[in-house]
């Protein structure tokens, strides 16, 4: 009788441990989803008010950087003509970093002349470095100089970023 009770206890303990792991993982996925939705909303709000700062990419990386990278960048520069906003990942973005200590990757937003605003909480979710796709990935002048940048229709590349 004692052996049967012991075996049932072991089975119940294994089931409890499995359920605890699943609950923890579901909670982590929920937190990642919440932060992804929040981050998407922040970037969308900025994109609604600002445009891509092509001049900043040209100044920092050279005139053909966006074209060579097919528009893929790790830092997003937006401007409204007066103010510039930078969105990028900061911190230690290695996969094996223990994110519970708060030392992992975070997404930061920086307005011109102001300090960084950390948008994601590194202790709640472990993220990888961001990559932004800039479409079109060249300024209007570049498209006029090299029509091969937009093989379909020049108007679709220039006026529908």
Which key phrases capture this entry?
45% helix
Poorly predicted regions are none
Give the fraction of residues assigned to helices. Answer: 40-55%
The secondary-structure element order is HEHHEEEEEEHH
Per DSSP, what share of the residues sits in E-state strands of 2 or more residues?
A: 15-25%
Number of domains: 1
In round numbers, the mean pLDDT is 77
Structural class, from secondary structure content? alpha+beta
Q: What's the number of helices?
A: 5
Distance between the termini: 73 Å
The tally of beta strands, per DSSP, is: 7
Largest sheet: 5 strands, antiparallel
Strand order of the largest sheet: 1-3-4-5-6
Our Rg estimate from Cα atoms comes to 23 Å
